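worker-03 picked up job from queue 'complexes'. Input manifest follows; two sequence lines, order preserved.
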Amino acid sequence: MNNHLSPDQFAKCIAGQPSREELQHIGECPECSAEVERVGAALSQFLSAVRHRIDDRMASHPTEITPLKPPIKPLPHTGAGIPALRWALMATAIVVAAVLPFFISENKPREAPEQAAQAGQPATEANADAIMNRVNLHLSRTLPAPMEPMLSLIPSEFISKPRGVQ
Amino acid sequence: MKPGTTSGFIAVNMENPALELDDFDRLVEQYRARVLRFLFASVRDLDLAETLTQDCFWNAYKSRKAFRGDCSVNTWLMRIAVNLVRNHVGTRRFQFWKKAPRVDSGEIHDWPDRSISPEERAAVNEQVQAVWDATKILSAKQRTVFLLRFLEDLDIREIAQSTGLTESAVNVHLFRAVHHIRKRLGRPQ
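worker-03 finished. Artifact:
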């Protein structure tokens, strides 16, 4: 027959909550008393060792805590697990992609004549002839352009033909 | 009569604990060792424990207006510390610290009492290391309850306030923790 404390009763005694019967048993049973004392001593030594370690640490880092200074926090994460920084980079890329075509289109008119020049030489020569004809016509006018409608009121024999026109 | 008692080196205002928060620098000075001790034994890494201690006091500072004084400041700080440990277990930050190579940061050794013989000191170191190792295999709740009871000397009601458990649940976790640690310590030679 086993008259010693059960593991649960030991745990209660070591945790500092023994019942009257358990206390009485510990007082009478040297084995159970020694066991409670042994575990209690180990826990006490553990406590002292941890305290000693912390005291050492605090002695070497006396002013580690600054309560008014917020601690450095990691970047907040979204539900999908993508950091906010990545979202910011993606948004920047989208904005750049949307704005870039406008910058490109501003440069296009400057490039157009050059492209036309490269497209074909005959078209350019035809344009030059047309421009020269218009200059000649302008120089051969007897009246300024706004007054030309008045010429219809004057008989044709009084109007001198422009130079160079047969 | 001055409404205060002295518990160890900590002067505790028993009538209105909220008054303790008026001088926050002094509060940090008073409770830093206790908070750091609990966090160190919980996360088993002094550098991480220092960071969490900083977080604990920062959270306490931010929420000091909400503290109604329905428990002691020590219990209130321990509740914040317990929540920090709970939040950090499983986070990337904790995983990083767990995987990072340590240089004597998470171990306790070298029994401070030099008056005993080297043989006795070796035996004591072995016992301390056994308890330290035993706390590692406990469940998170068992470890928290065990550390609050034996390291911080809180009573069952204060542990229940700090952890959000019922007093009967605290007892269950505490007895199981003690049982595991006793088993780990083994039979006497």
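worker-03 released lock.
Chain B is about 65% helix and 5% strand.
The longest strand of chain B covers residues 5-7.
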